[in-house]
Amino acid sequence: MSLIAYYDLFLRLETIDGEIFEGFGSHCSAEYCLHEFGREEEAMQIDNWLFYAGDIRRVQPIESAPTHIWQNRTEYDMRLDAGPFRAMEEGRKTVELRLYDEKRRQLRPGDAIRFENADDETESLHVLIKAMHLFPDFTALYAALDLRACGYRPEELVNASPTDMERYYSPVEQKRWGVVGIEIELI
């Protein structure tokens, strides 16, 4: 069973023990699970629960999330440099790259983020989190995600490198926390 297909959906997940869980699923790569939990198997996270592929009997997408999920969402504040801010505003950037530190571990699909332009505090964007893509480091993330969705222009792809993110997060920080691609849509 490949779990990546369920990454941005509201799901009903049944474990091999018959337990049922519902919520937005975040995909965790096998590399991330090995790094964080010592088990090299892809997994699906719903709220604070982590389900390895081998522990899942069935995953079913549910057509629409219950209304209370959207009404009770939490909104977080983050700053964003002007270039990525403009790319997000234009709809070119639909994945925000961050360290999966204590602040980002609180985020869940269905939550909202208010991004403030770091160069002009009067400008902000509101986005909805569709999915969380977790990886042990930016090398694994860059290999798995579409870098155009991460804000790179087509002409920049040839020079795109995971080391670009060391401007923000050191290799030591990446190793300690892991990283996340936060898939978003403007609201």
Structure described in brief:
Helices cover 19% and strands 37% of the residues. With 187 residues, the protein is α+β, with helices and mostly antiparallel strands.
Task: Note down, in words, how this protein is organized.
The chain is of the alpha+beta class. It has two domains: 4-61, SH3 type barrels, CATH 2.30.30; 73-186, Archaeosine Trna-guanine Transglycosylase, Chain: A, domain 4. Helix content is 19%, strand content 37%. It has five helices and ten strands, in the order E-E-H-E-E-E-H-E-H-E-E-E-H-H-E. It has helices spanning 30-37, 67-71, 82-89, 138-144, 171-177, and strands spanning 10-15, 20-28, 43-46, 49-52, 56-61, 75-80, 95-99, 112-117, 120-135, 179-186. The chain is globular, with a radius of gyration of 17 Å. It starts with 9 loop residues before the first strand and ends with a strand. The model has no long low-confidence stretch (mean pLDDT 88).
